[in-house]
Amino acid sequence: MQVLETRDVTKCFGAGDVRVEALRSVSLAIGPGEFVAIMGPSGSGKSTLLTLLGGVDTPTSGQILLEGTDMAALSDDARTLMRRRRIGFVFQAFNLLPTLSAVENVSLPLELDGVSASKAKERAEKALEQVEMSHRGDHIPGKLSGGEQQRVAIARALAIEPALLLADEPTGNLDSRQTKLVMSLLTRLVEERQQTIVLVTHDPSVGEAAHRLVKLRDGRVESDVRRADAPTLPGAEPAARPEH
């Protein structure tokens, strides 16, 4: 089963003469352990697509299936619950609470979801270990570099043990050195943990680090190409060849 699938997804905003099609019949299938980058010029629809993939909004038509469940068919409460428990989010802004330590920032969402404090801390420490930040667990964000803060944010997303990790310009606030470190971490999560990742970026070097590159233009999939040297993972579907 695919981790994520979009079937003929269209998203419109406005009505009548001001109706805009942000996405037009987008169909994608993303299997377990795939690392997919989405790129495109401003206005191509990549941010809209990420919003739909994360269950924050619903398509005008078409289906978005997470582990076989059509998110648009769920009630708002059920979709929120699925988003909170099955999708990890990483943003350009780190969104860490400044007065909490790294381990507290990672464990807080778990506690808010009903996980006991002791279990939440255990999972937070495990997630920080996965991003090589165990030694900084007691530090508040102000004592961490930008790259370290982003790694804590990634740990927070991983702590829920998501089926899908969505990253929106995760290196946008980082210098080139920190960007390489974060991308190396994401690649390792895919190759060692078979974590499914979908990343939106405007940076070609970041996009090329993914195993599969989807380019959007004018709300449509312009190309969908897997790197020749990308690992073949169990359950992963081959990407389509680019359209000519």
TrEMBL record:
It comes from Lignipirellula cremea. Residues 221-244 are annotated as: Disordered. Residues 4-243 form the ABC transporter domain. SUPFAM superfamilies: P-loop containing nucleoside triphosphate hydrolases. CDD domains: ABC_MJ0796_LolCDE_FtsE. The keyword Secreted does not apply. The keyword Nucleotide-binding applies. Gene3D superfamilies: P-loop containing nucleotide triphosphate hydrolases. It holds the Pfam family ABC_tran. Belongs to the ABC transporter superfamily. Macrolide exporter (TC 3.A.1.122) family. InterPro entries: AAA+_ATPase, ABC_transporter-like_ATP-bd, ABC_transporter-like_CS, ABC_transpr_LolD-like, MacB-like_ATP-bd, P-loop_NTPase. Keywords: ATP-binding, Nucleotide-binding, Transport. GO terms for molecular function: ATP binding; ATP hydrolysis activity; transmembrane transporter activity. One of its GO terms (cellular component) is membrane protein complex. This is Putative ABC transporter ATP-binding protein.
